[in-house]
From TrEMBL:
Protein name according to UniProt: Ankyrin-2
Protein biosynthesis is among the record's keywords: no
Record key words, sorted: ANK repeat, Repeat
Domain of life (superkingdom): Eukaryota
Length: 295
């Protein structure tokens, strides 16, 4: 039995004779871990990874061991590869990702596992088809509907992470396709949630990180809610001087008014947020007649 058959059939003893676990089949570019994953051989895949086989190796068509495990619906091998840090977002040459293949197969268990490991569902293959399109074309209604729910669930996760100061989790969610400015209906954005919970590290991340958005920092600081309140209004209302200062340094407009005609300073004074009000004045905010009366 040669190494290809040994890997695909789970003959670990036969593979043990190999001196190189990255040997490549010349015709296909497949390596031992590809064959083990394709054959659903959990123990063999575990053995190969433990002996240095690269978890994200690719064949001639750009397919990884994880892609082949997803294609053949070998859930335990998929779980193993993900635990060993396989990248679920690597696409084959035709642009098909693991999520796309699971959607095409109607494989809900695999899809759930991939999404739990931060795989993105916002991709297109070379024909312009998204995972949702592939699920629709193949009549997998449950998979198709799952993507609609996934969008909302992940926005909720992003907002929860923002309120708790979990920047690394936010990075994973955004990398997986969550819009950092997304709102559910008319609810708050992640930036607004972070401000309300005084998570200044999250505020700084959302304002300045260049990997999550190409929108300039100054524009990010100008976002408004349904009442036309800016992030600066909210920071003043909460009374967090550090966040007020950060927003102003990022380009927030100190004189901006909401739909009630109120500035950030109006709210800081009304709510007796003295430290925040002082920062606003240092940046040029002027007391209005309303402010003076409130004082």
């Amino acid at each position: 039995m040669d190494w290809r058959e040994a890997a695909e059939n789970g003959d670990t003893d036969g593979l043990a004779a190999l001196s190189n676990f990255t040997v490549v089949d010349e015709a296909t570019g497949l390596q031992p871990l590809h064959f083990a994953s394709k054959g659903g051989q959990y123990r063999t895949a575990e053995f190969l990874i433990g002996n240095g086989a690269p978890v994200d190796c690719r064949d001639r068509f750009g397919r990884t061991p994880l892609y082949l495990a997803v294609f053949h619906q070998h859930l335990e091998v998929i779980r193993l590869l993900l635990e060993k840090s396989a990248d679920p977002d690597i696409a084959c040459q035709c642009g098909t990702t693991c999520v796309s293949k699971a959607a095409e197969n109607g494989d809900m268990e695999t899809l759930d596992l991939l999404l739990q490991n931060w795989a993105t569902w916002k991709t297109e293959n070379q024909d312009g088809e998204s995972p949702t399109d592939l699920a629709k074309r193949n009549g997998h209604f449950l998979v198709w509907s799952k993507f609609g729910n996934c969008e909302k669930d992940r926005v909720r996760e992003l907002h929860d992470a923002a309120g708790k100061g979990l920047v690394e989790k936010m990075k994973k969610l955004i990398k997986a396709g969550v819009d950092p400015t997304a709102r559910i209906h008319t609810a708050s954005s992640a930036l607004e949630v972070a401000i309300k919970h005084k998570q200044i590290e999250v505020v700084q991340f959302l304002l300045y990180d260049t990997e999550i958005s190409q929108v300039p920092t100054s524009q990010r600081a100008l976002s408004v809610n349904t009442e036309m309140k800016t992030a600066l209004h909210l920071a003043a209302m909460v009374g967090d001087p550090a966040t007020v200062d950060l927003l102003l340094a990022a380009g927030a407009i100190v004189s901006a008014r909401d739909k009630f005609g109120k500035t950030a300073l109006d709210y800081a004074v009304r709510r007796r947020r003295d430290a925040a009000a002082e920062i606003l004045r240092q940046w040029g905010a002027k007391s209005t007649a309303t402010n003076e009366t409130s004082q």
